[in-house]
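User: quick one
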Amino acid sequence: MLSIAEIWQWLFDVTNWEGRYGLVNLFFEHMTLSFSAILIAALIAVPIGVAIGHLGKGEAVVVAISSISRAIPTMGLLFALVMFMGIEFRGFAVTLALIIIAIPPILAGSYAGIKAIPQTISQASKAQGMTAQQLIWHVELPLSAASIIGGVRIAYIQVVSTVVLAPLIGLGGLGFGIIQGLALRDFAQVTASAVIIVFITILGDRLIGFAQKLTAVKLAAVEIDR
Amino acid sequence: MEWALKNLELIFDLTITHLWVSLIPLVIGSVIAIFLARIVPKRFAGSVNGTLGALYAIPSLALFVALPALIGTNYVGPINVVIALSLYVVASMFFSARDAFNQVPAPAIFIARAQGMSPWQRIIHVELPLAIPGLIAGLRVAAASTVSMASIGAVVGVRNLGYLFLDGFQRKIADEIVTGLFAIFVIAIVLDAGLWFLNKVLTPWSKKSVQHA
Amino acid sequence: MIEFKRVSKSFGEAEAVKDFSLILPTRKITVLMGLSGSGKTTLIRMVNKMVEPSGGAVFIDSNDISELEPVKLRRSIGYVMQEVGLLPHKRVLENIRLIAEISGQTKTEALQNAKDMLNLVGIDQEFHDRYPAQLSGGQQQRVGVARALAIKPNILLMDEPFGAVDPIVREELQDELIRIQLSLGLTIMFITHDRLEALKLADQLVVLSDNGKIEQAGTPSEIKAAPSNEFVKKLLGV
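Assistant: Done. Structure below.
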């Protein structure tokens, strides 16, 4: 069994941090892949989710998309897209796969957030003469922020879990150490990489969770004012 | 399509392994989740849920390969995958299982106590049967993710349907990858339908069926 | 006979019952009447140890129940409450049979008792195989009474049992209870805030104000004839 000392040794070896496949480079690649996909997915899914929640039409579509998406293995989706788009466009294919993976939870979170707003609030706002745009911007978006961020949180978990597989198609990211280490039977590298991934992922999850809490407090305050 | 027809035997074998590697964690994980949900006192529920939430966030491949350093298993093979997937099932079901127990009507529990049911009798005759709809709803969500996540086990040497992704990619056979996607999707759908049906059979008393009676 | 001896109960800071003493005679209906905050539900729950007193003791036939095992004690005392608490996933007959079996009866005994008691409370056989949700509120409450009787108790605790049904059904159920009491002769502790119900059912009527303070106790006619103070007068509308 691997000792903690061996893992430490690997982690504190400067050569493992430098160069094309050094941890610094892999970290930034990992983050760029994850966050660009989540950002694009949010730009697509939040407006659609909000619109569906606002109009009250298309609920079945949201539910169907989010339950079907759970049954699609992300690794297969990733490989299939790279295959069909060509290996030279794999960077683009990975991003596309990650966007597809991130959309359903963000869509569901946005829709559910709007749906959960008490009717009295939106009706009162309309009665005060708000236009539909004002209603969405000043009432529905702020009140559903926590739920939208909750959707982003699930998207983040699934996206990062897939980004870890990117080295399998010849890209980098923090999963590189796992894939290479398994191939070379360098288990100190495998474990150290896994530890870094676990640490960074949980940290990210907690940060998003914190943002979720901050925005949720707002909703409670509004409800008390009512 | 042609590829799939030529390799039916391989697909069948991989499917069997895939089922084992998914079903065992679903059984182990849901039993643990239900047990925890029932016994964890309210004041600890938040911290348990937080811990499980962090666990749930860990990418599956990272968890598969982190386990050997923690518990001394081999790096390659199904044991880490089964353990990791069981943990994900626990993490995914704990919250909904608590909800399921909380939704058991309080008067039924009260009378069960007041008429002298022992704690065990109360769980067997009252709480578990009445929590079934909520428990199965949570299990359906966990089942779909487990079946699709199990495919990543192929990266650490589990020969399940995920193998079709790795092999198809290496040998540039698009059909093989598509076959894997399709097979996993079908397993997930069949499992989901089975659980839906199980719920229907186990809860003939639930509102919808009662109105038909 | 049930006896409360200088019983008190506080939940944290809040005092629910303060120094309460009362004897409930055997084979009689004792009605505790009071508004919310009078501690009446706390008192009834002390008899089957669903609530443990903070001070004092409850005796059943001169046995201090604090020395009895709660589960065993509860299997010998019938309990009926407003929310009924039928098991929604079990059919009517099974709801009763199960509780009878748990109380220690054999399977055949329990089934026979369940059928007899449903018959006694006026639930026809055609309802035996229905689920509770398929019954009216009044029928559910009858089943609730049958369930409490099926364990063959000497003591029946009734916590506002007819509070949720409409007035006509309520009167039917009260008449039913009187009829059942004539044939079974149980020691019944009955809680209500409805004065007509209290006057109709009570052999012994106990009027409570806050924290289980007994304002007056006696037969309904005694109390009606000579209410001891304004509170009693107001509560009974005399």
